Amino acid sequence: MLRDNIRGTRMACVVVDPQRKFYLKHPEWESIRDSAVTGINRYMGMFRERGLPVIFIHFDGPTHEPYPGDDGDEWLQGIDFRDTDIVVHKGYMSCFKNTDLEKVLRDLGADCILLTGMLTDFCVISTYYSASERGIAPYMGKGALIAYNEKGNEAAEIICSTVEEDVLQRFLDGKQAPITDF
Predict the structure, then answer these.
(1) What is the pTM of this model?
(2) Per DSSP, which regions of the chain are E strands?
(3) 54-64: buried (b, 16+ CB within 10 Å) or exposed (e) per residue?
(4) DSSP string for residues in 4-39
(5) pLDDT tens for residues 100-156?
(6) Hey, how many other C-beta atoms are within 10 angstroms of the C-beta on 8?
(7) How far apart are CA 159 and CA 77, in angstroms?
(8) Taking the C-alpha atoms of 30, 63, 101 and 113 in order, what is their torsion angle to the nearest 10 degrees?
(9) Main-chain dihedrals φ then ψ at residue 42, nearest 5 degrees
(10) ∠ Cα 87 124 92 (to 5°)
């Protein structure tokens, strides 16, 4: 569901598994990757401009398909990772399972998150629902996700709260109209 508002008071940007080992065996892989990385970088920039947290999730372990290189754990080409970003390591699909992500978010005062990264139809959506179960309002960043399935991003947008950059901009600037419906 494309939303025109965000519920919450303080948001963190969570970049899920942007690692090279999750590449897609797809003839348009570089274009898909580069487009999403551009979107991820734009969203992260919006958070950094305001001193808001950017959290990278790093999956420790093998992927379902072998990666043809020795740089699989490195971030995707072009990702603007900074030393000030927080890194949370995980070993399961959900970024919350057996990690300190919830504690990190609570310590930061974040009651909502913007999810970007990959793979939309696995780890991102699993984290989306895990956040909701913990009382953290989740949103997906349109144009900053990579799906395994060709229609994965479209499917997620149908069932998950998704926002575009202008909506996030208004929220981060404190210019969002009050939410009156629930």
Answers:
(1) 0.96
(2) 11-16, 54-59, 86-90, 112-118, 137-146, 162-163
(3) bbbbbbeeeee
(4) S----S-EEEEEE--BGGG----TTHHHHHHHHHHH
(5) 999 999 999 999 999 999 999 999 999 999 999 999 999 999 999 999 999 999 999
(6) 16
(7) 29
(8) 30
(9) -65, -45
(10) 65
Cβ of 25: how many Cβ atoms within 10 Å?
A: 7
Side-chain half-sphere CA neighbours of 38 within 13 A? 7
Task: Select from 48, 119, 37 the least CA-distant residue to 83.
Answer: 48
Look-up: residue for tokens 């992260």?
44
Q: Assess contact for 136 and 127: CB atoms under 8 A.
A: no
> In the structure encoding, which two tokens stand for residue 113, read together?
């998150």
Strands 86-90, 137-146: pairing is unpaired
Burial of 76 (0-12, 13-18, 19+ CB in 10 A): buried
Amino acid at 17: D
Q: Is 145 helix (H, G, I), strand (E, B) or coil?
A: strand
* Spacing of C-alpha 59 from chain mean position: 13
Beta bridge partners of 90: 59
Instruction: Summarize pLDDT for 5-61 with one digit per residue, the tens.
Output: 999 999 999 999 999 999 998 999 999 999 999 999 999 999 999 999 999 999 999
User: With contact defined as beta carbons under 8 Å apart, do 81 and 57 qualify?
Assistant: no
